[in-house]
Amino acid sequence: MDKLIMRGGQPLSGTIPISGAKNAALPLMTASLLTSDPLILRHVPHLADITTLAEVLGEHGAELSLHGHGDGGETGRVLSIATPQITNAVAPYELVRKMRASILVLGPLLARHGEAKVSLPGGCAIGTRPVDLHLKALEQLGAHIELEGGYIHARADKGLKGAHIRFPSVSVGATENLLMAASLAEGETILENAAREPEIGDLVACLNGMGAKIRGAGSETISISGVARLHGTEHRVIPDRIETGTYALAAAATGGDVTLTGTRPELIDSLTELMIKAGADIETGAETMRIFRDPGRALEGVDMMTQPYPGFPTDLQAQFMACMATAGGAAMISETIFENRFMHVPELMRMGANINLHGGTALVRGVEQLTGAPVMATDLRASVCLVIAGLVAKGETEINRVYHLDRGYERIEDKLSACGASIRRERS
Ligand code: UD1
């Protein structure tokens, strides 16, 4: 298994191009199943999760072709997906267990093909993560759902019918599955308490480009007028706000001066606000974000609570904690989205961080200095939190299980090296 070897203590300085958003690209790819025409997606990041989902789509009969390369250039990679026919409605366990987002094939398969058999994703490192909200809402559209042998078997022999659905709690994935299913349902669907994440807006923009009739994306209530068929389109994936936030926090933690390009700073206002409060300087342009800090000024601890968008994203909680580990004073960090998302805490403590955990809240008391250590993490964002810690720590940090990072960060060691970080991959 590959590992990253880092030597910390160097402020990051330079420019980092931001890739297309993984969490936008994944649902967009599954939307391709809704039509027999090609869907062309631009600015698709080069990540292991994208490859896994490509395999899942291939199982259903999708033909995929990739052009360009992930060099952070103007268009990044261009992925063309066409599924003239759904040849097989089964998403097998071996693929779904690698990535929960495979559950997003359920809505499109059901809507276009009338049947889907998708493995239950099971638990994962950051909690139990059930899919009950997806299933109950699809049932409201008229789907008949049975769980058998670890699989969700959904059928809609007479097609799906629009319904008024109120989600009992906010779910990004359930909102996405329902948007796709309702696009081809008969009549009108109203989704209340829908997720408002920018990735939802991106999916809706693409679906509307394919001929769907969806209004209200970005608000809590979304209405969908079903259409008989959807057609192909070309769509550019939005920039990755989590990658943006991760490098912004890395820059601030090291006391560096970094400009992020090809991003949309307004997508992470909740983070920018807190970083300024903590003492970072931030300048934003339409597609750029510069993060720097007066060398004489240390960061101050600030409290943070994760919340659905537009609140602070749970996917930046671990990175924020790494940044607070060496800030002056204390920071109270509350995780409200996932019940078990503090796997990075013991590893940060092995590097010298002072953290007290009480249920869903971590009290981080800033320390003068972290020290390098061999560490490993069990999920994507926890792994990248350890990279930030390694950038500020004294001495050498060895990060194991790099495959987690490869799921969500394109060329991370190249992007950080270009800003002066000492980081290299050891392949094995
Ligand atoms: C998506 C993101 C993930 C992010 C999360 C929250 C993708 C591919 N992944 O995941 O990176 O951390 O949003 O912003 O976009 N829940 C249920 N029942 C359900 C569905 C969800 O109880 O049927 C719970 C989950 O366990 C969790 C909460 O609802 O506690 C939010 O989950 P959800 O928004 O669905 O996350 P994902 O779409 O899986």
What does this structure look like?
- The protein is of the alpha/beta class.
- Helix 1 packs parallel to helix 7.
- The protein is 31% helix and 25% strand.
- It has 14 helices and 24 strands.
- The strands form six sheets. A four-stranded mixed beta sheet has the order 22-23-1-24. A four-stranded mixed beta sheet has the order 2-15-17-16, covered by helices on one side.
- The protein has helices at 22-31, 48-59, 93-96, 106-113, 132-140, 172-183, 198-209, 241-254, 269-278, 317-324, 344-350, 380-392, 403-408, 412-417, and strands spanning 3-7, 13-17, 39-44, 63-67, 77-82, 90-91, 115-119, 144-148, 151-155, 164-166, 188-192, 213-215, 222-225, 233-236, 257-261, 281-284, 288-292, 304-305, 330-334, 354-358, 361-365, 374-376, 396-400, 422-426.
- The structure holds uridine-diphosphate-N-acetylglucosamine.
- Uridine-diphosphate-N-acetylglucosamine binds at residues 23, 26, 100-101, 127, 129-134, 169, 171-174, 199, 314-315, 337-338.
